[in-house]
Amino acid sequence: MKMTSRFFWALMWMGAGVSISASPVLTLTPSGDVSGTPGSTVGWGFTITNDADYIEITSAQYCVNPVNFPVVCNPSMLGIFTDFISQFNDIIVGAPGGTDPSSVSQSFDPVALTGIGSFAISALDLVNSGDTGQIVLTYNLTSLDPNDPNAVSLGTDLVLSANASVTAGSSVPEPGSAGLMATALAGLAVGRRLLSRSIR
Amino acid sequence: MKQFLVGPLLALVFLDSALVAQNNILKNGGFETGLMCYGQYENNGTGDYQFLLSTDAHSGTYSAEIACTGTNCTKAWLISNFIPAPASQSYSISLYSKCAAGAQTAVYIPGMVNGDVSSALACNGAWTLNQVSFTTPAAAGYVYFYIFAYGISTVQVDDVVLTYGDGTVPVSTTLHAGVRPVSISGQNVIVDGAPYLALGFYDVGYYDLAAVAATGANTINGFEVYNSSDCYSTGQKSYPDTAFELGLNFLPDSSTTARTQTAAVFPAVAQTFAPHLANIGWYLADEPDFVEVAPDYVPPATLLAESAALKTQTSLPVLAVFQHAHYTPGTLVPPYNGSVDVWMSEPYGPDFSEINFAVNLFNSIQTRPIWLAEDLLADTTMIVPKAYWAIIAGATGILYYDWTEFQASPSGLAAAEQVFSELKGLNSAIFGDKMDSLVSAPAGIASMSRFDPATGTAYILSANSGSQTVQGNFAVNGLAAGQQIAVLYENRTITASAGSFSDTFAGVSRHVYSIQSATTGLTATIASTTGATNARDWKFQVYNTGIGPANNAAISGLTLTQTGGTACTPVIGTLPVALGNIAPAASLLGDVIIDFSSCGSTAKFTMHLTVSANGGASSATIVRNNLRM
User: Fold this and answer.
1) Would you tell me how many other CB atoms lie within 10 Å of the CB of residue B580?
2) Closest Cα partner for B359 from B344, B340, B376, B374?
3) ipTM surpassing 0.90, yes or no?
4) Model confidence pLDDT, tens digit, residues B298-332
5) Is A153 on the interface with B (CB under 8 A)?
6) Residue B43: band (very low, low, confident or very high) from pLDDT cuts 50, 70, 90
7) Nearest-CA neighbor of B554 among B584, B531, B588?
8) pLDDT at site A123
9) Poorest-confidence range of A6-10, B94-98, B228-232, B481-485?
10) How far apart are the C-alpha atoms of A121 and A150, rounded to whole Å?
11) How far is it between the farthest Cα atoms of chain B?
12) pLDDT for B144-174, tens place per residue?
């Protein structure tokens, strides 16, 4: 029976006693803590660095605490998370000195659909409510770039996570109305000073 | 080795030996099974006495020896176990003593019809026969005797024979001889084929067996004064036969024998006392690590040797309480690893954290079943919560020390009965499927979560060890809003919010939550992708993520949508893939075979995997992108 190259290399890796050794790190940018007003959309950018082998992101979720993926991963009740990183992108992070970058970064952009993903805060949310949890990514691990015909699967559905939170903040006054309010307060202060002088 | 005399005494010695073997209420009068059936005490618990087995015997291999090994020696004594005795019955006790001239020793029998009976034993440097007669009072009770040694001396005794006053011995027949099926599986003791939750007392007298059974207890530890094993032939139904018929399981105790540090005697001990259907374990030693009390201390190597010798003749699990297991530094216990099959500790008092210290210490040494000795707390309202705290920590046995103390405390006894009743009622929950990963208790609250597949019920046992009131939320994965949660033993229910419920702990207390007919959730991960391109095995791990059952779970659908690479058509194998029933927080593996032979290495796919259970009432779709074959 002819052995496929993938199968052959898999046996070679197992025979060599190779274990999963990659320790990728996920950093959410600019912060894991995002906030927005009810009805707005927020999201996370990322930097993923890797130290060995090749990882390819296959899913992203925002799970509220407590998190024990995959058994415990509950969605936020504040809104809806949408996976950008695996649904609209194919992020491969290699080993240092390999055929792919060992560090990949993307900022969150809801138009370009980059970053970890978006979170659409429900319009019905009360202000100053929020939750904490984790961004949980799954990835597959291969010995080479996964497009390489000699790449060997070293692991599937491995987990990469980072702490995250969503806050539905209070509405910030519009610039126009804020200016009017400042003028009104200033006028009130001047009025009080004049009133004070006249009483003396 | 048997000591034979010559000449005219030969016939007398043979006759005497026959009496010892066959005509004696005591089953260990000659100390050939160590100090089984005897307790040992000295001064006020401290001193320089040692209780030993001497090969300088009047007959047989061993005699009992009380030796002063230093200068702190006021008095020490052996005390027989408590022998059930009829009213107004005359008895005769004879024994051989050997001690240097001038040494002081005595036999003492308290509470007889004319008061306490005491008689000095002969000390002349040679084995000398002593004999004392006495009669029990007008009410049935116990007969027991002391053998005292006073001062800086060494006293040996042998061939203690107790008979009725006319020299006869009532005949006892063992009704339930045999070997109980007992084994160890992980951290559980398996008795009669099922995980065993040991609940009971230390040190129960013969006449109290029925009262102990009435408390709901199921286990008795023979350590201390009343009855360490099947020690007597009294004409009445024997202690172990009586216990067995009352549904009480027994742990024979060999603490005093272990302290003689004579491993060679243990095969005989096991042969004599282990085979009985009441016996479910062997209490090898009490506090062998108690190095501060010299007569109680058994060095690790010695205890290991004694345990090994015992096990040459019995398959019963071996237990011992370790005094230093529940407080720092805990370094005295690890060297004893291997001497017991069931760890025991005695974290007495109101500080519940000592339970966790002991459990963590034991588990760090080697995972074995853990049973605890517990005491009569001054505040008896803490007894029930503390028992729950122990079970939540991982103990599967609680034995209260001791029966006499609890019997004298109405509130303490009521608390113990409540513990037995509630925990026995929760047996299937305690030994159910673990689902701790699905439940988070409020800060400061200990909890364990289990699923009973027989009833489809999820249980959460919880306890507060502090005096402060704790109010908080239990986060329960998959808990549906509106789900009714029964609070057992409190006649109340709680209505759940989505994913949680809240409750209040008023000081030291326990709550038990029961959730029936809960819905459940499913998820899955890709465990591996292996095999040839034309028969690639995608192995999925399917999880039950809720607190209800996932019956007849299956991988019911799988689609692959190509998102990259040269167009191809993978052929997905047979679906659905049946998995079986999955308990909460558990998982099962299932394989889907896919033929990727038409695909190149750059082909990638988005997968939609559908898993279902409970006739389709529970289902989930799992999505992964950028998958390669």
Assistant:
1) 13
2) B344
3) no
4) 999 999 999 999 999 999 999 999 999 999 898 99
5) yes
6) confident
7) B588
8) 86
9) A6-10
10) 44
11) 110
12) 999 999 999 899 999 999 999 999 999 989 9
- Chain B residues with CB within 8 Å of chain A CB: 437-438, 440, 475, 477, 498-499, 523-533, 543, 545, 564, 585, 600-602, 604, 606, 623-629
Nearest to B481 by CA among B465, B462, B500: B500
**Which among B403, B357, B29 is positioned nearest to B209, based on CA atoms?**
B403
Q: Any idea what the Cα angle at residue B461 is, between residues B201 and B474, rounded to 5°?
A: 160
Residue A137: name the closest of A80, A66, A84, A76 by CA.
Answer: A84
* pLDDT average, residue stretch B166-193: 96
The 3-state DSSP class for residue A175 equals helix
Task: HSE, CB side, 13 Å, CA atoms: give it for residue B166.
Answer: 4
Can you tell me the distance from the alpha carbon of A38 to that of A79, in angstroms, rounded to the nearest whole number?
Answer: 9
Over residues B578-606, the pLDDT tens digits come to 999 999 999 999 999 999 999 998 999 99
Which residues lie closer than 8 Å to B511 by C-beta, 6 or more apart?
B462, B463, B487, B490, B503, B505
Neighbouring residues of A186: CB distance < 8 A, sequence distance ≥ 6: none
A66: cis peptide before it, omega within 30°? yes
3-state secondary structure of B172: coil
Model pLDDT, residue B519: 80
How many Cα atoms within 13 Å fall on the side-chain side of residue B313? 17
What integer is the mean pLDDT of A152-169?
A: 95
Residue from A5, A57, A58, A76 whose CB has the most chain B CBs within 10 Å, to mutate:
A58
Nearest C-alpha of chain B: how many angstroms from A58? Answer: 5
